[in-house]
From TrEMBL:
Tagged with keyword Oxidoreductase: yes
A GO cellular-component term linked to this record: glycerol-3-phosphate dehydrogenase (FAD) complex
Keywords: Flavoprotein, FMN, Oxidoreductase
Name the UniProt record assigns to this protein: Glycerol-3-phosphate dehydrogenase, GlpB subunit
Keyword Chaperone in record: no
GO MF terms held by the record: glycerol-3-phosphate dehydrogenase (quinone) activity
FAD-dependent oxidoreductase 2 FAD-binding domain span: 3-412
Length: 432
């Protein structure tokens, strides 16, 4: 019999499966698709706003949790987890991916966006390191007052306006004072053949080929002036090695600016974690959806999967759910305004406030909906705190209580809850 079934192919699911497998447990990862990482920017947001800008996420987490406790409603995952699981979870990811990620869990930085703004994050791909702006006045950061940046667009890539980015970046007062000196330029680089419109993935795939990469590096080199840092859209290859080759070829600082989904940096992180899961011999079942479970004596005995043409039952001692939230279909709102969890019919923690309102820029309480857990990440009844099933745990975007987009907390919650849930299961199996 399997020790654990992990459901979900996003950051929480992959990291939980790797944590369990590295502890020697027979682990099966079930996921319907590629997970949400490639919809993101490849960064790790621990806490960006509370609601003011956060410079030191772990230091300010306590105050954030106090504010969340006073707010009421479903308990925020960080209130259940505390600081140390966040530190352990982020540290485990750093251990897994090594130098592919840069940054310091103690300190946020600002990264340029595809609209020419600056947003906070904690860890970021090494390909974005040369574009960081420090939130610490004593640390000049990679970009600072007077830094010269040429924002280079690609004529065939319509999702990125180099003029817009350069103009907006030049207007921003930096945390340490002063402004950047920016200008824009563009190169012609079709992803395939002579196509007029290319997407980021096609261009990234082309840059993985050495002969195309050399042409691109030569074009950038002709545009850049002495002392300038080069900013390009997030297209510098589907492998980390491609960025390294481009940076070495240019011989000057270069960084990527994230784009709308699919995010190439997020795809790189997905591929790296998936390759690690295969290397550690995590059993992977792709393209299957959980449609039910057999239960008895307060435990889940098996999960029922809907696969092509038939149903399959998988037995396991423990189940860890990390299927995401509304965006992945793990939580649904029907035409009668009722919220439900479609796979297992689990009870949901729902905010007391009106779930949806007409404020386009304000909080929509519905997105705080999710499953409730105790501090070990075991799924519990929201009203009583009693376990729903003794061997059922949850992690990631499935958890209630957070507004991940507003808080910039999604990856921090995913990592902390995934590692905490995995460690809880490991402890339970050691005791049995």
């Amino acid at each position: 019999m399997r020790d654990v079934i992990v459901v979900g192919g996003g950051l929480a699911g992959l990291v939980a499966a790797l944590r369990l497998r590295r502890a020697g447990l027979h682990t099966t990862l079930v996921h319907m698709g590629r997970g949400g990482l490639q919809l993101g920017q490849g960064t790790i947001d621990v806490l960006g706003y509370r609601p003011s800008l956060v410079a030191h996420p772990l230091t300010e987490l306590g105050e954030f949790c106090a504010l969340e406790e006073r707010r009421g409603g479903p308990t925020h995952p960080y209130n259940l987890l505390g600081v140390e699981p966040v530190r352990v979870g982020v540290g485990f990811l750093r251990e897994l991916v090594g130098e592919a990620m840069a940054g310091d869990i103690e300190t946020n930085v600002l990264l340029p966006t595809a609209l020419g703004g600056l947003r906070p994050t904690t860890l970021y791909p090494a390909s974005m390191a040369a574009g960081t702006v420090s939130l610490d006045p004593s640390d000049p950061g990679a970009l600072h007052d007077g830094s010269r940046v040429v924002v280079v667009g690609i004529e065939q890539l319509k999702d990125f306006s180099c003029q817009l980015v350069a103009q907006n970046l030049a207007t921003i007062e930096l945390p340490g004072g002063g402004r950047l000196e920016t200008r824009s330029a563009s190169v012609s680089f079709p992803g395939r053949g002579t196509e007029a419109d290319s997407n980021a993935v096609a261009i990234a795939r082309a840059l993985d080929r050495p002969e195309r990469r050399r042409d691109f590096v030569a074009a950038l080199g002709r545009l850049a002036r002495r002392g300038e840092t080069i900013a390009v859209p997030n297209v510098l290859g589907l492998t980390d090695e491609t960025f390294t080759a481009i940076a070495d070829g240019l011989g000057r600082p270069v960084f990527e600016i994230p784009l709308p989904p699919p995010g190439v940096a997020g795809m790189r992180l997905t591929d790296r974690l998936t390759d690690l899961a295969r290397a550690y011999r995590v059993e992977m079942i792709l393209g299957s959806r959980v449609i039910g479970a057999e239960t008895g004596l307060g435990r889940i005995r098996s999960l029922r999967l809907g696969t092509a043409g038939h149903e399959t039952d998988l037995e396991a001692r423990y189940v860890l759910l990390a299927p995401g939230g509304f965006e992945s279909g793990a939580i649904e709102l029907d035409s009668y305004g009722r919220l439900h969890e479609p796979a297992l019919g689990l009870p949901l923690a729902v905010p007391d406030a009106e779930l949806l309102n007409d404020s386009w820029a304000g909080e929509q309480p519905i997105f705080r909906t999710g499953v409730a857990t105790d501090c070990t990440m075991r799924v519990v009844e929201p009203a009583t705190g009693e376990p729903v099933h003794e061997n059922l745990y949850a992690a990631g975007g499935f958890l209630a209580g957070a507004q991940r987009w507003d808080e910039k907390s999604g990856e921090g919650i995913a990592l902390a809850s995934a590692v905490r849930a995995a460690d809880s299961i490991i402890e339970q199996l050691k005791e049995s």
